[in-house]
Amino acid sequence: CCCGWEGASPPTSAVVWSYTKFKLNFTYTTYTMQKRFPSILEVYYKSNEWSGIHGIRENDQMMWLSSKN
């Protein structure tokens, strides 16, 4: 492979960087969805709540508020 760590796990820093980049991108995506397609985002939140995963809506709202400051 061209990643530089054939046969081994990726470095911890690469994993942390990838997760952080994904999380920031996902936060931006949900914020955009809230503005453009609130009904789709509502379905996302409800489906997670129905499956027993709670607090996503509140976490997103906290992230949006903290990013404004």
Low-confidence stretches: none
Strand content: under 5%
Number of helical segments? 3
Instruction: Spell the H/E element sequence.
Output: HHH
The 3D shape can be described as: extended
Q: How many domain modules? A: 1
Describe what you observe in this structure.
With 69 residues, this protein is mostly helical. It has one domain. 74% of the residues lie in helices and 0% in strands. It has three helices and no strands. α1 crosses α2. The model has no long low-confidence stretch (mean pLDDT 76). InterPro entries: CEBPZOS. This is CEBOS protein. It comes from Haliaeetus albicilla.
What is the secondary structure topology, with strand pairs?
Elements: H1 12-36, H2 38-50, H3 56-68
Sum this structure up briefly.
This is CEBOS protein. With 69 residues, this protein is mainly alpha-helical.
Features:
single chain, 69 residues, mainly alpha, 0% strand, extended, CEBOS protein, CEBPZOS
